[in-house]
Amino acid sequence: MTLTLEAAPQLIRVRPLLRVTGLHKRYGQTQAVRGVSFELYPGEVLGIVGESGSGKSTVLRLLNLEETPDGGRFELGETPDVFALTRQERRAVQVHQIGIVYQNPHLGLRLRSSASGNIAERLLSAGERRYGALREAASTSLAASEFPLARMDDPPLVLSGGMQQRVQLAKATALSPRLLLLDEPTTGLDVSVQARVLDTLRTMQRAHQVSMIVVSHDLGVIRTLADRVLVMRGGLVVERGLSDQVLDDPQHPYTQELVHAKL
Amino acid sequence: MSTLADLAAPRADYTFAFLDEHAKREVRRSLLKAVCIPGYQVPYASREVPMARGWGTGGLQVTLSVIGERDTLKVTDQGADDSVNAVNIRRFVARMTGVVTTTDTLEATLIQSRHRIPEERLREGQILILQVPLPDPFSYLEPSRSKARELHADSDYALLWLRLYEDLTRRGEVMTGADHPVSVHGHYVMAPSPIPRFDVPKLHQAPHLTLLSAGREKKLYAVPPYTDVQPLAFTDVPFQIERQEGWVCAQSGVSGGFMTELPLPGGGARYVLSDTGLLDKLVRARRGEAVTVGETYTELGPEASP
Amino acid sequence: MAYVAARGGEAAIQAAEALALRHLAEVSADQIAWVEAHLSLLVDRVMGEASLYAPRLAALALVQSGGELEGAVLLLRAYRSTQPRIQAAQPVTDASMTSLRRVSAAFKDIPGGQHLGATLDYSHRMLRLDLLDQGRSALPAVSVAQTPAPAHAESVSLWLRREGLLPQLPDLAGEVVFDVTREPLTFPAPRAARLQSLARAETGGVLALGYANMVGYSGVHPTVGEVRLAQAEVTLRHPVSGELFSAGRVRVSRGEIVAPTPEGASASGGAQGSLSLGCCAALGWNETKLIAGGVLDLAMDQPQAHPALQEEFVLNHTESVEASGFCLHFKLPHYVTFASELDRVRAERTRNAQPDIAAFEPPEVSV
Fold first, then answer.
1. A179-190: burial string, b at 16+ Cβ within 10 Å, e else
2. Interatomic CA distance for residues A39 and A76, integer angstroms
3. CATH of the domain at A104
4. Nearest C-alpha of chain C: how many angstroms from B117?
5. For residues C345 and B203, is the Cβ–Cβ distance under 8 A?
């Protein structure tokens, strides 16, 4: 009798959507990010916490390709290293694959253009040339961000902070990016507004399985949104793990301090 | 006995076409580059010429750099050959070169113009030189020129399109008057100079060479013959030229050319063709003189009694 | 007369020019010489902004333009365009210029000495109304100093460099200097282009922007290291023999402004713990330009410079001929462009008269 080797089973391997390795960024004498590495899986929400100066927002700006790193690789989807692409290719990645919501709406929006125009600009960058299609996409995207459509042609300048964040969110998601970056998306908003915006974010995330990285100093935001969390301090990741695990049972003294300060 | 004065070259105060040869060469080199990269704004040094900046010094430097003794020059401003500024430029170039000047588009080999393209079709071999105040279509949208250069390099024109979107959304109309941005052969978007929208289609696949030059901003650019030139417009919102339906030229009786509106005392207006070279020929033809009127870009309506 | 007369454009502009010339009255060579001698600082300003050192021609330009300053600068610059360049003179150094006035605000005394020279800085600004009646001012007596001030003095910046307070200058020997009159200016501008543009810039514009900095629109607190008025030798190389020789002297002035290097500053600055130098030099004597220009040179390197103090903004908008020309060109006929605008306004008005179609409705599009 011959020995039959058992056939190797077909394993489901989920490749990460994003893999960042050895990210470095220096400003003058300051080493803002020191060798940060992490992965993000499709549909996952990764939180990055830390106080101001920890390097968490720098990481986000690097991922949004607003600045060039001093070292590191950024694998996104099929692209082995986004940092190594040409300027034009990077721009295409930025337009089609990445969306960002900033704490300060003036970084993400043209405050004097109409809200719908802000979304339209995103589509125009991607080559849409039909006015009707722009209108439709803008209203669809604004509606998904739970923005009142009656105000879609008002400029963000006259909108409330919460509304401005919804416009940013609609703009960021208009082209269904693979990666959504949120930089303190609800900081500075009233508590009740903050809760509603977080609610919208969670609804959208669940509905579309958007892969997100959310940066915040607010552990409440992280707990609400994130599956996993990185804790950053002085440009380094000092602790990482599942959100519940890290926030309920912090190991690193700095995380313990953060969590207790919150409580 | 020969004196030093005998040996020296006879006194000459200014060179042919005013600019020194080095300067002309530099402009021509830049022009060649501009022709090779249609719609791309080529920086050039831009010398001071004896006219105020913003008064056509860019166009003038191009004219002075490409003009030869056998050229025939036409200069217009707002379509008029006898507008004060056109007269002044023509007078200067004629004085510094001795070339023949004309008001007839058909006779001209070089046409320097401010804000208009003639109504009679230009042909191969003719050069149209447009004076440009603001060469960058981003002028009022992105004030930093270095930033605007990056946007051009990336062919990132979303901002220009956004302006059309905003106009349509907030005002119901695209509000660009003259100088409507055009896409040149599918890459660069350029400012066609403040020609009326009526003139923009004349640039598309034109057999003549168009050179555009901004002296103050020190940029020149070109539309070579047979190049695609498309005004920016949404595919579902057609580009509109000025509405002049029913406007009839009070002097020639024709309609269909670009008209200038002349207010009448007490209200109302009358209209005359803005292209005075053509107007002059039409008026002479009416009087029975033998004149050749070329084929026009737009069909001129039937004559009515003015 | 219509603005664009049927055939009268040519006659009109000639008549208008004739009338203007009559208003300026007759001019003689003596009067032009008088302007050169008596309005020397004005002549200096025209030469500096035109970047052509020719006092008699600058005086002529002033007379010809009726004293309109930008007009005179344009006349001189246009003339400059026609002049071939024979060669670049040797660089003017501390040793090759004869200093006639040199003051420093940074130190009570400086090597070579504070040297007031000729200045109206400490005169009482009172109109000499008596001159209107008597018609002649008496020249005051001037006494010769016992020990003359040294003709050549090292700049204060050199002392600061020796002390390690300013970074060393790069060695530029053999380098071809950028020339803003021959090459287009793009940004960030080469250092030479910036300094040349400042030298040519409209003094009023430099003052306005420099003043904005001084009163707090950027973080530079300037100290005048040195302001110097001098005569400089124009040293050329003989085209045949190769010998250096002086072709004459020109009036030049230079200002050095110092300030602590701010965090993150570029270009003119050094590392932290040192000073930065703002420099402005001009053909002719123009102290306002030197100080305001030197301050701007520093301000432009500030990492967080106010938008109106950034290099591109400053250099593009203080260009006398361009700014004044563009401003005045709005007098030219614009009736074609205005017609296009009117067309849009009328279209918008028609639309607004029908409120139910106030927003654009795109036609059905098949995708």
1. bbbbbbbbeebe
2. 10
3. 3.40.50.300
4. 11
5. no
Closest C-chain CA to A29: C264
- Domain spans in chain C, listed from the N-terminal domain onward: 9-81, 94-117+148-168+179-323
Number of H helices, E strands in chain A: 10, 9
The interface predicted TM-score of the complex, written ipTM, equals: 0.87
> Is the CB of residue A53 less than 8 Å from the CB of residue A74?
no
Range of the domain at A218: 26-112+176-262
Nearest in space to C257 (alpha carbons), one of C297, C207, C294: C294
3-state SS string for A122-187? HHHHCCCCCHHHHHHHHHHHHHHCCCCHHHCCCCHHHCCHHHHHHHHHHHHHCCCCCEEEEECCCC
Q: Which of A28, A132, A135 sits opposite C264 (nearest CB)?
A: A28
CA nearest neighbour of C254 among C125, C56, C74, C91:
C91
Is C74–B52 a contact, with Cβ atoms under 8 angstroms apart?
A: yes
Domain locations in chain B? 21-230, 243-306
CATH topology assigned to domain B21-230? Rossmann fold (3.40.50)
Domain count, chain A: 1
How many Å lie between the alpha carbon of B253 and the closest alpha carbon of chain A? 39
Give me the amino acid identity at B159.
Answer: L
The two structure tokens encoding residue B199: 């003139």
How many Å separate Cα C131 from the centre of its chain?
A: 33
User: A143 in a domain, yes or no?
Assistant: no
| pLDDT tens per residue across span A66-118 | 999 999 999 999 999 999 999 889 999 999 999 999 999 999 999 999 999 99
Residue C99 three-state SS:
strand
What is the rounded CA–CA span in Å between residue C180 and residue C321? 14
pLDDT in tens, C100-114: 999 999 988 888 888
- Partner residues linked to B110 by β-bridges: B73, B127
Q: What is the pTM of this model?
A: 0.80
Domain membership flag for residue A167: no
- Give a yes or no: residue A48 inside a domain: yes
Our CA dihedral for C8, C9, C11, C13, rounded to 10 degrees, sits at 150
Lowest mean pLDDT among A147-161, B37-51, B263-277, C126-140: C126-140
Please tell me the distance from the alpha carbon of residue C313 to that of residue C323, in angstroms, as a whole number. 12
- For residue A169, the model assigns a pLDDT of 94
Element (H, E) at C17: helix C9-24
Amino acid at position C308, single letter: A
Q: Provide CB contacts within 8 A for A85, sequence distance 6+.
A: A79, A93
Quick check: is A245 in a domain? yes
Is A131 touching B (CB cutoff 8 A)? yes
